[in-house]
Amino acid sequence: MGKPILCLDFDGVIHSYASGWKGADVIPDPPVAGAFNFIRDADQHFDVQVFSSRSHQLGGIDAMRAWFLEWDKTATQEYRGCITECISFPDHKPSAMISIDDRSLLFD
To answer: CB burial class (10 A; 0-12, 13-18, 19+) of residue 87?
Structure first.
């Protein structure tokens, strides 16, 4: 049995999204402070999957992968390389044990 899934939204949770939506394959802003460290730590307990409204659009997943690779170069030595090792990019929202999204409401 594998680790439980942690689904992380990309825009606003990992990518700072300061410029707003520019298209599925345009990602101009830096990471949210601490995002890469969080992903690396979460990988110890979860199967970390990054999902976005970009995920099902042409070029969206490729653009997110390229963004991670570019920003991974600026990560501290301890966390460099974690992105390519730690995450996956499903094209449909996974059945996750936990989802973190900046634009959701808690259903109770």
So the answer is: buried
Pair of tokens at residue 32: 């949210």
Note the residue count of the chain. 108
Residue 108's alpha-carbon distances to 5, 105, in angstroms, are 21, 9
Cβ neighbours, 10 Å, residue 67 = 21
Tokens 């410029």 appear where? 19
Q: Is 9 helix (H, G, I), strand (E, B) or coil?
A: strand
pTM (two decimals): 0.88
Nearest to 67 by CA among 5, 104, 7, 22: 22
Question: 72 near 86, Cβ under 8 Å?
Answer: no
User: How large is the average pLDDT for residues 75-80?
Assistant: 61
